[in-house]
Amino acid sequence: MAKNKKQHLFSFPFMMWMVALLVASCSSSPENPAMVKELPPIFPDYAGVTIPAEIAPLNFVCCGDYQAMDVTVRGAKGGELHVNGDYADFDIDDWHKLTLENKGTDLTFTVCLRKDGSWVQYQDFVVHVSEDGLEEWGLTYRRIPPGYEVYGKMGLYQRELSTFSERPILENTAVPGACLNCHVSNRTHPDHFTFHIRGQHGATLIQREGEMELLKAKNDSIGGSMVYPYWHPSGRFVAYSTNKTNQSFHTVAKERIEVFDHASDVLLYSPDSHEILLDSIVATEDHYENYPVFSPDGRSLYFCAAEKREIPAAYKEIQYNICKIGFDPDQGVFVGEVDTIFNARQLGKSANHPRPSYDGRFLLFTMSDYGCFPIWHKEADQWLLDLKTGEARALDEINSSDTDSYHNWSENSRWVVFTSRRGNGYYTNLYLTHVGKDGRMTKPFLLPQRRPWNYYDETLFSFNTPDFTSSPVKFDAQAAAHAITSDKRTETKVR
Whose CA is closest to 444, among 382, 374, 364, 351? Predict the structure, then answer.
């Protein structure tokens, strides 16, 4: 027994020494690595991007086979991070200490990989930390599986941008068979929040200062549902379009689905009086009107308009311009005549999803060949209209060879979030970019995730309709689900 005990005592420290040796060989910094004259093959591609100091850590992996990764990040003003392992996994607190210390300057990343027992070091890359703060708590968005005929599991979610924390606002598992869509808050402030519910328990939900109401999904006087909302900055009005929408499927492999309107008009809703303002100047018989948005001062309404065509025979001839009309918020009425501020049809194109920057300088929109639903159009790109000069341009600095579509601004107008299929052509993911005072945008970066490869490879959902939110959305999902399934609705009247 004594002999066996002695052997056991000897083997335990020996085993611990071997483990420590193995750990040291895998985790210690590489010495004299072979230099490689190329950037590291990282995913996501963060080389050369501009970030807000408040963003979650830019964790990344390297593509290809390797046994270990070693990453050092040095700030131009000071500070250093060092991590190693299977991927670059930065401590959140240490990351933010480094980014805040280096606002307005660069972080330099040194990446080494251990391949076949030997270390190689790639060329350094830099990430610029902007002087412009994010000034937003997070993002809201919809996640939906890539199905068309049925909704499947989907919902509205909110994500804290300084961490990786995500939580549902409302999932359709609480309202079986429902489709939750078209959500928006008032200038990123979620005290005013609205979204539409399609399906058996259809409704338009409006929440102001915690008070919730559900409107009938359809009003016979307007001929359709109230969708694509946008708040007046006062909170006294919400602009909607009412659409009769159909979808069809292409027979060619490169084109999948087409969504088009048989009819659409723009209207305003007053939550105080439950009145719908329906004016023939933005609800014409010979045009489709769509995607209304208020100007930051609340005295104009932008929207898209296209001449009606025979559907479906001539659906590729439907091309939208961006229009503008005056609005009197005191009287709650439109004033003046409709003015076309961007003529996409002259370029043989269709302009959709107008979104004015909150400083009133720019109008961001999506340009595609035709139609009003460009999320499956590979040619869809982001464009920017300078409201001061009237000049418009394609945002080549952020566009890709695949679909780039829905977008929104941060309240300080220095950051944009948008959706893109550039990753694999099938799923839309969220990208962020910094906007300079001249409207130039920086290289977009994919929304950071704790384990990026696993997340984006295994999460089979598309992100869409993203928006910034200045604070967490306070929403009682249980009460909302009960109200939606009760079919109790607020009646509206047309003025």
Answer: 382
- pLDDT, one tens digit per residue, over 15-43 is 333 333 344 344 467 989 999 999 999 99
Residues contacting 6, CB < 8 A, separation 6+: none
Given a contact cutoff of 8 angstroms between Cβ atoms, the answer to whether 403 and 389 are in contact is no
Element (H, E) at 386: strand 381-386
Tokens representing residue 432 in the block: 């962020």
Label the pairing between strands 275-277 and 287-294.
unpaired
Query: pLDDT-derived band of residue 1, with 50, 70 and 90 as boundaries?
Result: very low
Contact 194, 205 (CB under 8 A): yes
What distance in Å separates the CA atoms of residue 495 and residue 492, rounded to the nearest whole number?
A: 10
Instruction: Tell me, rounded to whole angstroms, the distance of Cα 103 from its chain centroid.
Output: 24
Whether the CB-CB separation of 129 and 99 falls below 8 Å is answered with: yes
Of 468, 459, 475, nearest to 161 (Cα)? Answer: 468
pLDDT higher than 60, residue 256: no
Contact 444, 420 (CB under 8 A): yes
